[in-house]
Write a structure and sequence with these properties.
The structure holds 2 protein chains of 2 kinds. Helices cover 28% and strands 29% of the residues of chain A. Chain A is α/β, with parallel strands linked by helices. A 7-stranded parallel sheet of chain A has the order 7-11-6-1-4-5-12, sandwiched between helices. Chain A starts with a strand and ends with a helix. Chain B is an alpha/beta fold. Chain B has 2 domains: 2-213, 3-Layer(aba) Sandwich (Rossmann fold); 226-256, no CATH class. In chain B, 27% of the residues lie in helices and 32% in strands. Chain B has 6 helices and 15 strands. In chain B, the strands form 3 sheets. Chain B has a 9-stranded mixed sheet with strand order 11-10-9-12-8-1-6-7-13, with helices on both faces. A two-stranded antiparallel sheet of chain B has the order 2-5. Chain B has a two-stranded antiparallel ribbon with strand order 3-4. In chain B, strand 3 and strand 4 form a beta hairpin. The chains are: A alpha/beta, B alpha/beta. At the A-B interface, helix 4, strand 7, strand 9, strand 10 and strand 13 of A face helix 3, helix 4, strand 9, strand 11 and strand 14 of B.
Chain lengths: 325, 256
């Protein structure tokens, strides 16, 4: 039976995050020929609505209010709840990002509904949607469903394919007018710490450094490789603790959980806490001086060697082949 | 100040996962206080030391959880409460929230702290779900907390960026790594903990209707990720290895 699926899209620095498109893709699958409605909230989001259609939304709802400039659970909660009430969807999808993690449980609680957090896969079993999600830091997986009523889930970035972009797709944008009031939390200041333009949690390629990077300057060859590949730079907790880089780069159990297509670990020993954040990456390359380092146990390809020798050579080699192809 | 912490007992982070009869085996497993909840307990103790009042740590589970609750008392919490749900077969985040909400119904609290996520199920739902049920504001993934009168000022981690957020008590917050360095229980702390009150409540003594707290979700299957084949460690001159690696990434793995 065709279903009505509501997807809450997320923008960052006035650009839609890729996971929003992936959530629309997931919504299409769940809708099974029904309607996917994408909703977007913010201070000024009108320039973003076209893209939601290009990635497959059948209808778009926007809420604009200066009180929605920064995400707050009260502000966005009010906006999204009103949309949920007016749409009355069969399923709601949100990105499993800071925003989604903060907001989805509140919506679920308000609606007395089940919520599947951090889904990495979706399949349909007749009428029932079955989600796959990692548990115990990716050491195991579970398949989970909502027993009855509205289905709510958050979608982990980089795991569910977005539809191919089709710029000919368009549709009608509805404006929902919401009276945002009684904000109990006030965002006083936002301090941007993430440096590179590539969003770590959504990057297709990540070049990560550990203690073996030895200093802040030691990250430079990694950054050069990353720039060439359009990759994001990440780090192990060891590198962050040693002050070689900011904690915003940390990948692991504490820090970000990432699943890029390619993860290049440079001078990372592979402590279990780090593996928890990256072991589900599609392809892992390990570069480490120590042949016994446990990172080699999860790596698809390994080079035993000094990262300061290997990484610049790798950059050179990629430059060569990428130019000729 | 009335300070509450919601705590979960979890597998030690280093534990290997074994599946038996379609379930995750607890045989021989070391248990710990969920690491993020440890930050919450430490912060609660510091708040009490600065502002006065009392720290109560609340957990849901079977009698085994008493061990972790004693640890929390040994760290410096004043009281512990175990909501025993051993006889409840069907439980998920909705159920847990309903039990906690029923527990807090007749309590007076200025702040409730918890971890932002557990290291087992990792849903991160309980904090926001509970705040919504109690009708109080919440702030997740905090790395700093200052309270002045009834105003709380917090720094929170937003995927690596930092937000400064202000809110009024009563408030629920969830802890992120970096909030503090949790203390180890001292020997005198451990001795004192033995005499501190640890109350056990059976879940059906709470004002809940069994049908209404039934889980909304169901786990269909639990499985281990497919064993990864041993990777290829390249050999030869470094230059040749690099050349081969790039070729493999392009032609075999097809990721570049």
């Amino acid at each position: 039976m065709a279903k009505k699926v509501l997807v809450f899209a997320e923008a960052r620095d006035n650009e839609l995050r890729n996971v929003s498109f992936e959530a629309i893709g997931a919504g299409k699958e769940i809708a099974a020929g029904g309607e996917v409605i994408a909703a977007i909230a913010g201070e000024n989001v009108s320039s973003l609505t076209d893209q939601l259609f290009h990635y497959g939304a059948d209808r778009v709802i926007k809420v604009e209010d200066e009180k929605l400039k920064n995400y707050t659970s009260d502000g966005y909660g009010q906006a999204f709840l009103q949309i949920v009430e007016s749409i009355d969807p069969d399923a709601i999808l949100l990105p499993h990002t800071s925003m989604g993690k903060d907001l989805a449980p509140r919506l679920a609680s308000k609606l007395d509904a089940g919520l599947i957090s951090d889904a990495t896969g979706i399949e349909l079993d007749g009428e029932t949607v079955v989600f796959t999600r990692p548990i115990y830091s990716g050491k195991a997986f579970e398949k989970k469903k909502v027993k009855e009523g509205i289905v709510i889930a958050t979608i982990r970035p980089n795991n569910i394919a977005a539809l191919e972009i089709d710029e000919s797709r368009s549709g009608e944008v509805f404006e929902e007018s919401v009276e945002i009031k009684d904000l109990r939390t006030i965002v006083k200041e936002v301090v941007r710490k993430s440096t590179s333009g590539v969003d770590l949690s959504e990057a297709k390629v990540i070049v990560a450094g550990g203690r073996g990077v030895k200093s802040e300057e030691g990250f430079e060859p990694l950054q050069e490789l990353a720039d060439l590949l359009g990759a994001a730079v990440g780090a192990s907790r060891g590198a962050c603790d040693a002050d070689y880089c900011d904690y915003s780069l940390q990948i692991g159990q504490t820090g970000k959980v990432v699943t890029p297509d390619l993860y290049i670990a440079c001078g990372i020993s592979g402590a279990i806490q780090h593996l928890a954040g990256m072991s589900n990456s599609k392809v892992i390359v390990a570069i480490n001086k120590d042949p016994e380092a446990s990172i080699f146990n999860v790596a698809d390809y390994g080079i035993v060697g000094d990262l300061f020798e290997v990484v610049p050579l790798l950059t050179q080699e990629f430059k060569k082949v990428l130019q000729t192809s | 100040m009335n300070i509450y912490v919601i705590m979960k007992r979890t597998f030690d982070t280093e534990e290997k996962i074994v599946i038996e009869n379609g379930k995750i085996s607890e045989e021989g497993v070391e248990f710990i206080i969920n690491p993020y909840d440890e930050y919450a307990i430490e912060e609660a103790i510091q708040l009490r030391d600065d502002h006065g009042g009392e720290v109560t740590v609340v957990s849901i589970g079977d009698e085994e959880v008493e061990k972790e609750l004693r640890t929390a008392l040994a760290m410096g919490a004043d009281k512990a409460v175990l909501i025993n749900n051993e006889d409840l077969d069907d439980s998920d985040q909705y159920t847990t929230t309903a039990l906690l909400a029923a527990y807090f119904e007749d309590k007076e609290y200025d702040i409730i702290l918890g971890g932002n996520v557990s290291n087992d199920n990792s849903t991160g739902q309980i904090g926001p779900r509970l705040a919504e049920k109690l009708g109080i504001a919440y702030v997740t993934t905090i790395t700093k907390l200052d309270i002045d009168g009834t105003t709380a000022t917090m720094e929170r981690d937003v995927e690596g960026d930092m937000e400064v957020v202000e809110a009024q008590l009563p408030l629920l917050v969830t802890a992120q790594q970096g909030l503090n360095e949790p203390r180890y229980p001292s020997l005198p702390g451990i001795m004192k903990a033995k005499k501190k009150p640890l109350e056990e409540i059976d879940y059906d003594d709470l004002d809940v209707d069994e049908d209404e707290i039934e889980a909304k979700t169901e786990t269909v299957e639990v499985y281990l990720p497919p064993k990864k084949e041993a990777g290829k460690v390249l050999e030869g001159e470094i230059g040749d290895q690099v050349e081969e690696l790039v070729k493999l990434l392009r032609q075999e793995a097809k990721v570049i």
